[in-house]
Amino acid sequence: MSYVGSSVKRIEDRPLLTGKARFAADLCLPDQLHMRVVRSPVAHGRLLDVDTSEALAMDGVEAVWTREDVRDVPPIDFRMPWVEGLERFRQPILAGDHVRYVGEPVAIVLAEDLYLAEDAAELVFAGIDELDPVVDPVAAGPGAIETTVVEKAYGDLEEAFGDAPVVVEMELAVGRHSGVPMETRGALAHYDATRSVLEMFGAAKVPHHNRAAIASMLGLPLGAVVLREGHVGGGFGIRGELYPEDVLVCLAALRLGRPIRWVEDRREHMLAANHSRDQVHRIRAAVEPDGWIRGVIDEFWVDQGAYLRTHQVTVTELTTSMLPGPYAWPAYRSRGHVMLSNKTPCGTYRAPGRYESTFVRERLIDVIAHRVGLDSAEVRRRNLVLPERMPFKRGITALGTELTYDSGDYPGLLDRTLEYLDYERLTADLSRRRSDGESVGLGMGFFVEKSGLGPFDGVKVTVDEAGHVLVITGVASIGQGVETVLAQVCADTLGVGIESVRVRHGQTDDLAYGMGAFASRVTVMSGSATLIAARRVRRKALEVAAAVLEADPGDLTIDRGRVFVRGSAGGPAITLAEVAQRLRPGLTGGDPGLTAEGWFTADHMVYPYGIHAAVVRVDPDSGLVEVERLVVCYEVGKAVNPELVNGQIAGGAAQGIGGALLEDFAYDESGQPLAATFMDYLMPTIAEMPEVEVLLLEEAPSPLNPLGVKGAGEGGITAVGAAIANAVADALGCPQEVTRLPLDPERVRRLAADRA
Amino acid sequence: MSERTKVEVTLAVNGRPYRVRVEPRRTLADTLRDDCGLTGTHLGCEHGVCGACTILADGQPVRACLMFAVQCEGMDLRTVEDLADGDRLHPIQQAFWDNHGLQCGFCTPGFLMLAAGYLEQNPDPGEDELRAVLSSNLCRCTGYQNILKSVRQAAEVMRA
Lengths: 756, 160
Prior knowledge:
heterodimer; A: Aldehyde Oxidoreductase, domain 4; Aldehyde Oxidoreductase, domain 4; 3 domains; 7-stranded mixed β-sheet; 18 helices; globular; B: alpha+beta; Ubiquitin-like (UB roll); 33% helix
């Protein structure tokens, strides 16, 4: 039986379906205290004294801490430090001399009961001398702080632009969105004196990194901190990064000697957890009359919010690297200004830097097509990197690795998409509907994703003496189906039934190293590591079995946990359980146990690619955009579990529609957030969703890993904003005027009115 | 809060009585989770939008975050923990499993209870009606199409 490549039902679903899952807020410990964070109500100000006396006087309030209590704790360090010298922009765990955004932690209350903790928090008064906030760092001019500029360039731009027959110039912007997982953050920490260990439940995404960071911040040995991941209600980049609250929970547990539990409420989540996107681009292209793009110059500003958090300038870095996408532009320069403002700090959100840059690039392509009078699909085709140039070295770096597209047939993918759409007929049909008075349009976005970020990940595979298989991985589960995927790879490689495989993840005391779940890396990295570890276990089993069966190991095979001579399934056999029994210490000369670790390392990322196509219908009176069709054509090299890949794509597409049409963390001029509830931050429901049509291609396997896989976590969202924006422009017949996401009803109505 | 402000309430949850002492302001969701130990009911927003805390009260899907425990005495309350019959999954649970109707699983109990409650009263819903009903809850992982597929399958099984 081959599990890899088939849509095996998920092995992790049963507890999630029966209410027996353990999310962060489901955990309690005896004698626990509840933490409530007091947050800044203003966007910018000098923090004077914080009056805690009334709160402290309440029965059941154990402690109230302010900056004075945490002066010895350093700010939260960067997990991904791409640029040196930015340490002064890191966030302290409680506000120091200034508050810099609405929602910044100013104090914490620790109390016997959660309702009581909330009551007490309302009695903590922070004296704040208000200062003018920076709400729009691009318009603010010299008043805004520019932390750094990230620049990437190649080719001769002077030559490209010198005598360019056509120059197309645009300003394009993407609003402030975030992952907004359905589970808010939460943590439960306690100091276990019997083991001298500080243990924190509620970790996600990068438990190993956060363990090291917490140990370092609190001055503990690495071995004295254990992080545990339970069920995680969605990741999307935001969940699982190290935030002030995680550190505060651990610190309080250490100092007070009692378990500390913190569960974020939704409003806090909207104010305090990472935002993302929020970029303004000014882009120029030098173009030939036949649509060939000679060069592109892009200058952009990222509104990073009040501090640089764990990702530092990752999003800016990725934007500059990935903006050229699938095109062979001979010359390119992008300069990203990382700006601070008095808003919630930013991090990554699914397809960070690519959702934004794909919108900018693909909008630009459509405008170029309009300017030179060609069909936009044709302009795309004329500029694509051709298959014979693969692997294609761009000549710049991405996340510290050389940007080299590993494999791909971009024109082939375009052909497949146009064929699937029945392009000629579809455009004719839409044009007929438009002449009948409907505002309908088609838009496309071609994108290149990146995935499988290294440098390593490890897996330990063990078969016990009853034949049960345990896969231990250093990556994390954020709901994407990692248990099933790793079990599929392990079961195939080892020759066992998938029902005998269990997968454990996210426990920092299981494996010495673990990179975690981000950057669409898990199947690439941990899938490959599982393959390596399971192969080792298999080899060991075959050696032991060969001695017992008096056969050559090369003649043996394993099927459903039985080892026998290939071709004689009915003949003499030994089970993996029996092999494991023969590998007890003392019985074997070699290493005991039917177990092995496998490590997979990677210097380069792998680059899946795809096209999104959207058909929209605009109501010019209400400004409402209905997505009639959304097609995603995506090349993933190899799908370990096609159903799960389709699920990733459909889910990403929904978030992409949210970013394209609905979602925006808007602020008023005083820096007050206008979207702090689900009544204001609108996310797609099923009513806004078309049936996403997925064309999953497995024609360009990656040469860079033994499974041939490319990551599939992000390609569902990448070009949705671009495709919908192009479709709206097509529908309204205003090719150049669609310049900002989200295309909310107000903006669309204005576009429609201006057109008339 | 002192003990004096608490009131004693007996809740009938999943056919079992739970006698709890709660403040009048304590939400039903918190009471179910913390006082009854039924953590399958999840809190996603606590302002009645996301529907993760959907349970059945006298057969009707309701938001447990928008009700107080003290309002619920005498009601027949059902939570996700009551759906399966021992190891045998309810048709709606089985359908979500069969159709990859969940990813992270956090919104799942709310969708299961919404669909179970609705299908018990409307065994043969039309497509538009089903979409309208399911639009009352939020999911951030699936893009909803497999949820719709799951509920369609469950409706068929429950009708048979």
